[in-house]
Amino acid sequence: MQVYTTENEQIDVIKRFFSTNGKYLAVGLVLGVGALIGWRYWQTHQTNRLHETAAAFEKLNKSLVPGSKESVVAVEKFAHETNNVYGVMAELALAKQATTQNNLAQAEKNLLSASGKAEDDNMQALTRLRLARVQLAEDKMDAALKTLEPVKGKGWQMMVEDIRGDILAKQGNTAAARAAYSMGLGADGPQAIKEIMKIKLNNLSN
Predict the structure, then answer these.
(1) How confident is the model at residue 70, as a pLDDT?
(2) Domain residue ranges of the chain, discontinuous segments joined by +
(3) Which of 89, 126, 177, 189 could join 158 via S-S bond, C-beta 3.0 to 4.6 A?
(4) DSSP state string for 85-143
(5) What is the pLDDT of residue 11?
């Protein structure tokens, strides 16, 4: 690489560079500024869309009442068309509605859809815990245990072991159920759920 030893030589080189490449630098600058403006516009657009989606979900969720077929259809349409966190929440709301009507097959379908859409680890864990509960109620014990497997977060361990204990107890595997409840009691979590697990564990012992 050539080394320029005097200030005049350096200035001459800079002049020649800009004379030769000036228009390309100008185009590059324009493209760079355009890309930055476009990126900021896209971010603003996405934020506005998310706010609009949140407002739409809130309105639909409030309208979701037992026995209202129209409200269910509206939330189903929203859930089908929305792939972000509000689409997940819509599926969860539909699953809750189906569960109150003892339509466990529909609740499972909604929760499977929610699990497929959920990108956040915590939302994914929540959908799987609810799905495992529904599958347990449907006597799909093996499916419920498999549903719980990917839930590994420390904050969810107590609830995972509580459900796992219920599944194993229903299968008649008392020793494994006892181990699950004991592990759940050793994890962090709400004291109210721990008190319930203690009762379950005592019932197994008896």
Answers:
(1) 80
(2) 65-149, 153-205
(3) 189
(4) HHHHHHHHHHHHHHHHTT-HHHHHHHHHHHHHH--SHHHHHHHHHHHHHHHHHTT-HHH
(5) 53
